[in-house]
Amino acid sequence: xxxxxxxxxxxxxxxxxxxxxxxxxxxxxxxxxxxxxxxxxxxxxxxxxxxxxxxxxxxxxxxxxxxxxxxxxxxxxxxxxxxxxxxxxxxxxxxxxxxxxxxxxxxxxxxxxxxxxxxxxxxxxxxxxxxxxxxxxxxxxxxxxxxxxxxxxxxxxxxxxxxxxxxxxxxxxxxxxxxxxxxxxxxxxxxxxxxxxxxxxxxxxxxxxxxxxxxxxxxxxxxxxxxxxxxxxxxxxxxxxxxxxxxxxxxxxxxxxxxxxxxxxxxxxxxxxxxxxxxxxxxxxxxxxxxxxxxx
Length: 296
Prior knowledge:
Blueprint (H helix, E strand, L loop, with lengths): L2 H16 L2 H8 L3 H23 L10 H28 L1 H8 L2 H13 L5 H18 L5 H4 L7 H21 L7 H16 L12 H25 L5 H7 L2 H14 L5 H18 L4 H4 L1
């Protein structure tokens, strides 16, 4: 198997696994803060053991001060992103929360334009407009129930939580791009350690109160959706062209929507599907800069 095929297989597996994250969050039947805390603790233990076996654990102590500070900052932001996203799933459901969360590429472009004075091209605003139309369809803000035969319930707080989560994740992505590329797993481990420390004082579900069933779901979220998925992605993405990676990363929301429909019986309406396709197309256009070269 060629390196590129290995990368494709790794990303497909990781994104498909991520598609079951919302299911596990809901099945854990705990507050978003509790789910995020145990995700951080269990993932930190798993990633720490993996790093120790590879001999990379000592590298955490040798990180430059600037790199460490940026990693810690990204950890705080990542924790906020997880908590908000879990709250969005609880309020709006897996499909809607996941679709709305994928406005992240647009937020990253806007934040970069503000912070680093990167120029926004006219075609970028066209992609933004298409994404907004897609979100309106996907979340039910534009109600076509009379045409499609089914209305989509709207939870404003859930949608706001998903957008806020996407905003924080956009900041994490911007910070990650300014860190050494070889430190992906170290960055994730630092983020999980930060999360465990930050969330501990707010924990309402102590380890003694966690049921055996909840431990099972927490373990899956920490070891599979965080540890295994991040290891797969960090090993696979460098082997892929940007265009291939950008397309494959959308297997996550697609698989999440399928899981939501299959497990919870929440079928996605035609309007939501159309909205998701608009968001997907606009996100790919923004990520791959379609139209920019012609504009030059």
